[in-house]
Amino acid sequence: MAFGNTNEPYVAEKDSIIVEFGKSGKIILIVDNKEDFERLKKMNINQIVQELDLKLNEETGELTVVEIKNKSGSKEIVRVREDGMETEVYVGGIKVIVDESSGNTKVRVETGNKKKTDPSFRSYFNVDLGINNYLDSDGQFPTSDQPYAVKGWGSWNLGLNWMASQKISKGFYWDFGMGVQWYNFKFENRDFQAIKGDNEIDFLERTDVNGFKSKISASYLTAQTLLKLDFGKMNDNGKRGLRLAAGPYVGYRLGGTSKFAYRELDGSGRKTEKQSTGIYLNNLRYGLRGEIGVGSFTFFSTYDLNTFFQNGKGPELNPISFGIVF
Known about the structure:
The protein is mostly beta strands and 326 residues long.
């Protein structure tokens, strides 16, 4: 039974025992049955607490005070949680917070949905959208005098990922899953065409036509795993905290083509040539992925530890990507 009291003393309408403790502590027990009342009078406070079977959650510090069941079988539980000078009382969808940390006691009442719990396991779907480039053997981005130098706009990366997340501890997760990634490397020198040579990939300068788009694309089936730290959930701040994640990935190539779009020198309409250049691409790719998130935004970066082309079949280039996770 819960009640509010102003300046008037509480008067029990039925047989009752009132236990007072400290300066203002009070437990009021009301019974309707005379035999129960006589038995109750003979019990000490420790017996009363044991009879009530109050449950303390050692991890959260929450104390279950009353559990009410209605005829439909559903339950409403009254819980009390003490954290230093702050006390929280949960009754159904209402939370009463009493803050005695300052000189004046503050009482705040919050209503709405019950507090959402962080599931121990969940699955989800996300989309990567970013841009690509690659680093040469000196760890530098290829300069524009190289035929395979890429331009940022148009060298896009798209990934569709099916993921699962296992909670290890509060704010610490292990994420893993599979997905499909598409990589496009759009050449800055659009007059060069990537073609399949006899023993390696060649970059042919097309002086016979007016080229306006040239690129290499590849797709991969990829498995990845990440260890994630969510400082917002660690500090009970929801999505307002910083999120960090890192882990390895491995992918198997599904396809690889080169595309060259051009117009004839006499001004003909647009024409396109495609070639299968996958024969010179590494079938297996592996690397590291990192993520950083704030609020609703998550940024990612990937770096392939192996080269894009097979050894001796093309320039030594390690793909790198940057983008946003949706």
